[in-house]
Amino acid sequence: MPPFVHLHVHSTYSPMRGVASLEALCAAARAQGAETLALTDTNGLYGAIRFLEAAHHAGLRPILGAELTHDHHRAVLLVKTAEGYANLCRLLSTRHCDAAFELIAAVAHHRAGLIVLSDDAQALTAWKQESPQDLYVELTPGAMMHQALAFSRRTGLPPVATNRAHFVRPEEFALHRLLRAIALNTTLSRLPADACCAPTHWLAPLETMERHYPHAPHALANTQRVAEACRTDWDFKDIIFPAFRQLPDRQALALLRDKTYAGARWRYGTLSPVVRERIERELAMIEAKHYAHYFLVVEDIVRQSPLTCGRGSAAASIVAYSLGITHVDPIRHNLFFERFLNLGRHDPPDIDIDFPWDERDSILDTVFARYGTHCAAMVANQNSLGSRAALREVAKVYGMPPAEIGRTTERIMRHADFLRLDHILSPRRWAERLCRELTLREPWPEIVGLAVQLEGHFRHLGLHCGGIVIVPDEIRRYVPVEVAAKGVPVIQWEKDQTEEAGLVKIDLLGNRSLAVIRDALEAIARHTGHRIDYASWDPLTDAATLDLIRRGDTIGCFYIESPATRQLLKKLWTRMPGMRRAQADVFEYLVIVSSLIRPAANRFIREFVRRAHGGTYQPLHPVLEEVLAETHGIMVYQEDVTKVAMALADFSLEDADQLRKVLSKKHKQRQLQDYRKQFFRGAAARGAAAAMIEEIWAMIMSFAGYSFCKPHSASYAQVSFKSAYLRAHYQAEFMAAVLSNQGGFYSTFAYLSESRRMGLAVLPPDINASDWAYTGSGKTIRVGLMQIKHLSNTLVDRLIAERTAHGPYRSFREFLQRVNPDPAQARLLIQAGCFDSIAGELTRPALIWRLLAWRDSSISTTQKIPLSLSLSPAGRGWGEGKGSGLLAPLPVPLEYPDTRKLQQEIDTLGFPLSQHPLDCYRDLLEGLRYIPAREMGQHVGRVVTMVGWLITEKGAETKDGEPMEFVTFEDTTALYDATLFPGAYRRFAHLLSTNRPYILEGLIEEDFNAVTLTVHHMKSLDTQPTLTTQATGVGYVV
């Protein structure tokens, strides 16, 4: 064994300090002949599980550890035993969570099972008094090394040599300085020297280390002694389950059985033999895999809300369905339980539960209240420097002016789409080529070259969107815990490391569409008295809903409102032969569509539609015809990967499931290559030709990164169906709920336009008719006060409470008396037209006059306007008698011109409400010959001119990796979809911006009855619009 082991090593998981990736560190250490390597990132085990994987792949024995720092004290802690690992996690947790943390005292209390290296004389002296065992003086080349060596000789504590490696090669010190400057928000010229490590702190080879320690060879030898004492056989294979009410396992299983059968009778009524057999089979598997407590904990959480969507592979479980965790019948929809849980699956599957987005925080509060921060913590997001952020941050530390940074960053990010980093070139040469294209001078080539190298560096922890871990005893013995900005505990690992460490995650996620459904159901019950029970509601056979989905009229409907999905629904159903259409199950096809709409599967969509319409096809291999029968021979679901690998390449269930998993993990690319070889060997052995195997493997690779299993898609499709039902039958209530909950695929303006196309009248905000949220009933939608920009929530709550308690406001004067608003807030209400219905003959300028007079009166008397004030008979003011506070009648100026009122709509609401925004450009469009969107079908195959307001855009890539864009526009008649292929995208991408007007020229094309515009040329109507209230005569209905 080599006589030196690196025991103090930092990676990119030392936030904004370490430079090297784990793979680079392990490869460099192995190239130096090392057999063992420690990872000691700063104050964390952020990359511990990734390090074990990288070390094992490189053939290294991994030592887990961390450098613990606080105030001016520091120590490197290396793990000897399982107890030491638990103590390291506790120490790191206390360091991040306890404001009274003191490093010396904390380490003294939790030293068991740890080896401690430090050059902190005060700390070492204190710890030596407790016990000198496993205590070493750290020697590092530099000015302080001789003092540390003298301290070692004086105290008898053995020395150990380290190089505090922060990078693999000395030249990477520049990147370390950049990271430190970014972390400290300073420029390179002002970066303090002591904020960085030394330029010599790299992963130096043995020869270099021997030159540093000619006087202390025993310090080098001691590294081997320490390494031999540390544990290196980590596997984290034990799964850590939560405990339900601390019940013994047998009681938990018995309780689960009772709850399951009670729930099954609620779901099915009389239980058939098929249902009973499925329940028993699942319960046997749950017992074998020790999952009873987990199911009970999840069911306990789900009971906190009546509207949930259990999804993921757990939706294939009849136990979950019976408990109310999921709502899709796995028997009716032929869902495969073993996708969720099987004897060969070693990683812990989790259950994903969606709640209405505005209930999620209260659900989390309940979980922490029930299980405590001692046992529960959120899963982290490990936020890293993205390309844009890296570019901006490097430019900042170079001292570039903010305006230039913003302008140049936008240019580079747009152009870099076309100049991918060519790995044949160095980052610097690639940056020089890019900057030549953009005529950018120094230091921009240097900035870009450095930014490319910093992309992906770990910056700080964030919160996962909903993952939570609950353990049976103490969370801090399994993983370090920090406190998130929201005040909740968060572990240091993201979801993949959490799973690989054996911690079972529960995903509690916020879903806006569930809030839409909830709010719509409540409104329907108020308006009609008809109450719909969400859990038992089954709209899958409703004729109007089926027809709406077939037409693709699904804007506002969960997961099926995007342009791509609406186009696919139209292609799938509008040209499907009548016989096939009558026999086809709309829900099952919607499940397929929900899975097929993923970026890498675009090339299979057209062929799927053709086959769904009855087109003949020859399966790539006879096995696929049987395995993929329900999806017409095309791989759609994650399970299809498993089925094909087993049927065609003779994979075991365990290997096939692992192949499915590694496809979604970027860090598993090495394993993916191994599985590729296994697949090709197995398929060839079954007689498949090489070209056929390549084509099938390409289909498998379309699942890389982002794909769904069938149970997940079925759960989503069920929520989609419920959304579509509400849109079909209760349009106003549904669209009002969509608008109120915000955050859909489209903007508020786009949803209002869609509401009008549905035949609904959109009414302006009104002081007596509007609530905070949008409201809908019958054929009208009323704009909510939430839409008025800068309007205070507190004022809205107060005015609604006063209105509810004492009735509607009869005049502007009465509103001021009863609510006593801030004048600036009342002005917003006037400009938004909220008082138009009660103003009588008072114009908006007259209301402003009275507001100002009221304000001045309030300032002078520190009181509200006296109750005796009233309009004079002439309507010229609020009284002229004693105590009026007004010396003369107030004027009633003429009403604002319509153009000014239109501008006030735009200023207060964010868009014109009384007319389409394209009407504002009427003068600019005068004389232009363009076709309206509703007539596109009459011009298929022709090059036309169109006008459009950009609603949404989505970037994509061709099969050759070239960027392109799908864009949705609308004019005053309809929505329409357009495509910018790479050539057009290169020329016009810089023009694209949502909520802006454009003139487009292109070819109208039709594919399976879906009509789109292929853009050849486009121009932004960026000239200041001429406000006009005259409609263009193309049918925009207010």
Topology:
Blueprint: H1 22-31, E1 36-42, H2 48-58, E2 61-70, E3 73-79, H3 82-97, H4 103-109, E4 114-118, H5 121-130, E5 135-139, H6 145-155, E6 159-161, H7 173-184, H8 206-212, H9 217-229, H10 249-268, H11 273-288, H12 292-302, E7 309-311, H13 318-323, E8 351-356, H14 360-375, E9 376-384, H15 387-397, H16 402-416, H17 427-437, H18 444-454, E10 458-470, E11 481-483, E12 489-491, H19 495-500, E13 505-511, H20 512-528, H21 543-551, H22 563-574, H23 578-583, H24 586-596, H25 602-612, H26 622-627, H27 638-649, H28 653-662, H29 669-685, H30 690-701, H31 710-729, H32 731-741, H33 748-757, E14 761-763, E15 775-777, E16 780-782, H34 793-806, H35 812-819, H36 823-831, H37 844-861, H38 898-909, H39 922-925, E17 943-957, E18 963-970, E19 975-980, H40 982-988, E20 997-1007, E21 1010-1020
Parallel strand pairs: 1-2, 4-5, 5-6, 8-13, 14-16, 19-21
Antiparallel strand pairs: 2-3, 3-4, 7-8, 9-10, 10-13, 11-12, 15-16, 17-18, 17-20, 18-19, 20-21
Helix pairs in contact: 1-2, 4-5, 10-11, 10-12, 15-16, 15-18, 17-18, 20-31, 20-32, 21-31, 24-31, 27-28, 29-30, 31-32, 32-33, 36-37
Walkthrough of the structure:
The chain is of the alpha/beta class and 1038 residues long. It folds into 6 domains: 22-229, Alpha-Beta Barrel (TIM Barrel); 249-383 and 462-512, no CATH class; 386-455, no CATH class; 516-718, no CATH class; 761-898, DNA polymerase, domain 1 (Orthogonal Bundle); 912-1020, OB fold (Dihydrolipoamide Acetyltransferase, E2P) (Beta Barrel), CATH 2.40.50. The chain is 44% helix and 14% strand. The strands form 5 sheets. Strands 1-2-3-4-5-6 form a 6-stranded mixed beta sheet. Strands 7-8-13-10-9 form a 5-stranded mixed beta sheet. A 5-stranded mixed barrel has the order 17-18-19-21-20. The longest helix has 20 residues, at 249-268. The chain is globular and about 95 Å long. 45% of the residues are buried. The model is unreliable at 861-876, 879-886 and 1030-1038 (pLDDT under 50).
